[in-house]
Amino acid sequence: MSNATASAAAAAASVSAHLHAIKHRGESEYPKQVWYLTLSALCLATLVNISCIAWSWGRVHLRSKSQPVNEAAHKDGFSIVRIPAAILTASRIIAFRWQIPLGTTFSMSVFEVFISMIYMSALLIWEFVHTNNLDPDFWSNKAAHIAAAQLPLLPALSSKNNVIGWLTGVGHEKLNVLHRVVARCILVLIWVHLWGRHRIGFTGVDDISVFGWQQLGLTAGTTYTLMVVLSIRPIRKISYESFYLVHVILA
């Protein structure tokens, strides 16, 4: 073997090892980084909740120590102290009461749309970064890993009494909105994974008829898709009891 051939083989092996390292890092590290983002958001919400509690306690404490004032004059007058509460109330009205129609029978709140866009954008950035010019070998399995890593969020956000609500001060109904957002974003990643596996192929070394784990993955993806589709608001309104029963069985 000539020196040129040996050098070319060594260079090819080096490139292959480098690409393999990138692929492995994407599948093992990026799902963790998505969780770091999620935990950071929860920490921020917790700090905001603590700040609101401290602000409310401080207002009550200071008011109890101050001299009594004429209630009628106090109600009619303008107070700077009320501005944060007014801003918070207005933001809640805009976020949760304003509905954005999506078709004739479906709508989403402003908060739901905003969180969906932010969360989905973050997931897709981690999904398609460092994928060797969008090679399916680099992003197909990564999508499954990121989706699987986010699955624990679903039961955590769906239960009425949970640590997330206690830390953030967010009620069950609003956490349920986040539950639906996370579920839909995970569904997108599942279908990205299935599309990537389709691009790679289900024959040869990846013969789906041979590997049981691929068959289980296809079954799980189909079941999850059915569960999310049957959870949309128009179907829930028709018969909530039936929806709940099917939801629990499929989950």
Annotation keywords:
single chain, 251 residues, mainly alpha, two-stranded antiparallel ribbon, 12 helices, 2 strands, globular, transmembrane helix, transport, ion transport
How are the secondary structure elements laid out?
Layout: H1 3-28, H2 30-65, H3 71-76, H4 83-97, E1 99-101, E2 107-109, H5 110-128, H6 136-150, H7 153-158, H8 163-168, H9 172-200, H10 212-229, H11 233-238, H12 240-250
Antiparallel strand pairs: 1-2
Subcellular location: Membrane
Transmembrane segments: 33-58, 79-100, 106-126, 177-196, 216-235
GO molecular function, one term: ferric-chelate reductase activity
Describe the structure.
The protein is mainly α. The chain has a domain of 169 residues. Helix content is 77%, strand content 2%. The mean pLDDT is 82.
Helix-strand pattern, N to C?
HHHHEEHHHHHHHH
What is the general shape?
Answer: globular
| Biggest sheet: strand arrangement | 1-2
Termini separation (Å)? 59 Å
**Biggest sheet descriptor:** 2 strands, antiparallel
Based on secondary structure, the structural category is: mainly alpha
Please estimate the helix content.
over 70%
How many DSSP E strands? 2
DSSP summary: helix tally? 12
Gyration radius from CA atoms, angstroms: 25 Å
Average predicted confidence as pLDDT: 82
User: What fraction of the residues are assigned to beta strands by DSSP?
Assistant: under 5%
Unreliably modeled segments: none
Protein name: Ferric oxidoreductase domain-containing protein
GO cellular component, one term: plasma membrane
GO molecular function: ferric-chelate reductase activity
Organism: Hericium alpestre
